[in-house]
Amino acid sequence: xxxxxxxxxxxxxxxxxxxxxxxxxxxxxxxxxxxxxxxxxxxxxxxxxxxxxxxxxxxxxxxxxxxxxxxxxxxxxxxxxxxxxxxxxxxxxxxxxxxxxxxxxxxxxxxxxxxxxxxxxxxxxxxxxxxxxxxxxxxxxxxxxxxxxxxxxxxxxxxxxxxxxxxxxxxxxxxxxxxxxxxxxxxxxxxxxxxxxxxxxxxxxxxxxxxxxxxxxxxxxxxxxxxxxxxxxxxxxxxxxxxxxxxxxxxxxxxxxxxxxxxxxxxxxxxxxxxxxxxxxxxxxxxxxxxxxxxxxxxxxxxxxxxxxxxxxxxxxxxxxxxxxxxxxxxxxxxxxxxxxxxxxxxxxxxxxxxxxxxxxxxxxxxxxxxxxxxxxxxxxxxxxxxxxxxxxxx
Length: 395
What we know:
Blueprint: E1 16-20, E2 23-26, E3 31-34, H1 37-40, H2 49-59, H3 74-85, E4 89-93, H4 96-113, E5 122-125, H5 134-139, H6 143-146, E6 155-158, H7 163-173, E7 177-180, E8 183-184, E9 190-191, H8 194-206, E10 210-214, E11 238-241, E12 252-256, H9 277-315, E13 319-325, E14 328-333, H10 337-346, E15 349-350, E16 352-354, E17 358-361, H11 369-385
Parallel strand pairs: 3-15, 5-6, 5-7, 7-10, 10-11
Antiparallel strand pairs: 1-2, 2-3, 4-12, 8-9, 11-12, 13-14, 14-17, 16-17
Helix pairs in contact: 2-9, 3-9, 7-8, 9-11
């Protein structure tokens, strides 16, 4: 490893050089089953033929213009996103964090337009994670992320699932917006209940508060619907997306409806690279794959993976809970999840560990039944090697 890179990531030593479908290969020729997918990014797996063809063709014509000019794909991507998500307008970004930043600006601009500029703070949930820029970091609950960079935007937090606390906070703090993840990702794959999602919508309507859904990790089809909140029949005012949107290329989007969709005017916001022809062309390839049956595969493979993890939870005392939906699942252990993750990696299965002792499964949408079986075989073998009780602390 080189000292020229800032030490912001705890990287493995292996150097990965190619991938195919749900598998990646390192420089020594060893193959790994990838059930992390670049942290929910590579939904079409690696080297998907439609993505390769789209990128090769587009890079040979025009990769970048600027947002001062139209190109053939941005409006098509925006229209399809609005159709999938029941929104009115889209602002393209380069990442999930940028999508959150756009959402926060829209919320403040709406309050300014209403003549309520004093409503500049935000409300978020315990254990939520929304990114690492100043605005997004302001919403992220864990103090360890925020403390070195304070002061940040004014944010108050309420426990996820607590309707009474949410109602009190909305009345007391009168935020510009409530921001939540329908399934908390970094918080341990914790789905919010249908009742709470619906209550949040009702309470925001009652207090004239904008509702922002962060679907950066749970959106774009990962749960079996395009948006996770659609399982609860809830539509926010603003929704943020990124991760798999361009099948591995950096792309995000901030979608809005109603007054939020009309809030930003020329000069209010911008991005040099966002929404260019290369990423938009690739996003269309992703959408085409979803519409051609890939969304059904997410449901089928998600059911198989969930059933296998549930069986392990029944068999093994070390497993405390299985959570999530579709191909966004978490397996919470009583202890030693980082050790389990390391042993799985040694066996050739890539997962990651989040929220302490949760193994997180975010595989590509293109996995097949055999991939699921192999994953479950590895997980079962490793967990059976671990004791039910945590090891005693070292003196």
